DNA sequence: CCGCATCCCATGTGATACTG
DNA sequence: CAGTATCACATGGGATGCGG
């Protein structure tokens, strides 16, 4: 038997053999947002050694989870349909781990892809369906996200554009999503800085994206 | 920063820091079935080095996922409420990995706890609710499981007792659950051996426990 | 025996340098 | 830009020891 196998005939062990290695599910997390080039993956996972990234990509490809796809002269990595089926796993992990987040430390970064998956985790379709469609523009450091909520559907794109509410924030937004911090307090304390639009729309945001701690 | 941390402020990375180490989620898998002693965990994970088991138990305890509980002179490990919240993660992983199972190899074992969690993964409450309550007795090598399906609820216990259908089987049962093998074919080919009761109840079993490949 | 702790070695990981 | 090569080190795997 291969030394890194668990020796059990079981779905969970099989899953862990395929995506249980260090960094593997984080690569999947970023690819769930969209196809990514090697350098984009490396940028979204700043602490991954480049040889490990290369090794994981090879393993995940051999496992049928992702594929290298040539896109007009450059190569992108994209999930296969089977790889995409990991989304429930990643969302469940994210929801569980969210509750174990303590206050952010300085060296902890927030990447656009990680925020995007966090928003997908915290998104409450049934609540959103009852609210008017809304576009939020979020600036996180140098990155901008356009968060479109239309009925029960969510779309998060890495672009800028017109928004009903544009705000700048950082890791502290997790306290807004957890309900630990009320929207008006978030604005008052500077955790969220309103750039354009009606600040009271942050109430709607907090209702739409919520994950109890 | 601790060297084994990912350096991101994100629920998924946090989750992987807590339960992403090798063997950790398999320990959780077995504890989801019930409290277990050190030796029981070691027996259910025959390939885990004993020092790694001890290390994981310590880490999972510090993370608030499990606790050591004295039970009448012996110590058992049991999940905390927060640890129990990993069940959706484990079930999602199991459902995904189930589809990647190929034919079992000789050295791959099936443990009572892994089978129990597989049954929980494959259980279809809405289908079961439409069927009469049924008790199945499954013998897997030396182990016996009593599988009680009552309405939309499932209970799997490691004991023997009266059953509407008692059968012996092995890893090949996964082909029954995946639908790859019809119930009558499973009996005909010896994948499932009926010990007592009406063999046609295996149809009901296959309807109740199903996970498409 | 059960519940670990210790030792040793193979392997995986991390940091850095390097190449097509 | 997209990886490969190299090397130090941490972790995992396997055997064994050992106290209660």
TrEMBL record, chains A, B:
It comes from the Bacteria. Keywords: DNA-binding, Transcription, Transcription regulation. InterPro entries: ArsR-like_HTH (IPR011991), HTH_HxlR (IPR002577), WH-like_DNA-bd_sf (IPR036388), WH_DNA-bd_sf (IPR036390). SUPFAM superfamilies: Winged helix' DNA-binding domain. The keyword Transcription applies. Residues 10-105 form the HTH hxlR-type domain. The keyword Transcription applies. It holds the Pfam family HxlR. PANTHER family: TRANSCRIPTIONAL REGULATOR, MARR FAMILY (PTHR33204), TRANSCRIPTIONAL REGULATORY PROTEIN (PTHR33204:SF18). This is Helix-turn-helix domain-containing protein. It comes from Actinomycetospora aeridis.
């Amino acid at each position: 038997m291969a030394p890194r196998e668990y020796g059990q005939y079981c779905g969970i062990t099989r899953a862990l053999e395929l995506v249980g290695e260090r960094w593997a599910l984080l690569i999947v997390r970023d690819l769930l947002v969209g196809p990514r080039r090697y350098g984009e993956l490396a940028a979204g996972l700043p602490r991954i050694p480049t040889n490990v990234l290369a090794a994981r990509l090879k393993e995940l490809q051999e496992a049928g989870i992702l594929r290298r796809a040539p896109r007009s002269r450059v190569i992108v990595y994209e999930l296969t349909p089977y790889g995409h089926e990991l989304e429930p796993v990643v969302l469940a992990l994210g929801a569980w781990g969210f509750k174990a987040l303590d206050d952010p430390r300085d060296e902890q970064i927030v990447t656009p892809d990680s925020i995007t998956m966090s928003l997908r985790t915290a998104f409450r379709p049934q609540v959103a369906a009852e609210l008017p469609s809304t576009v939020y523009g979020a600036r996180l450091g140098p990155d901008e996200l356009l968060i479109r909520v239309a009925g029960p559907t969510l779309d998060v794109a890495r672009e800028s554009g017109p928004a009903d509410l544009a705000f700048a924030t950082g890791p502290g937004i997790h306290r807004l999503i957890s309900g630990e911090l009320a929207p008006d307090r978030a604005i008052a304390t500077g955790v969220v800085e309103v750039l354009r639009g009606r600040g009271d729309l942050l109430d709607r945001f907090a209702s739409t994206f919520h994950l109890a701690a």
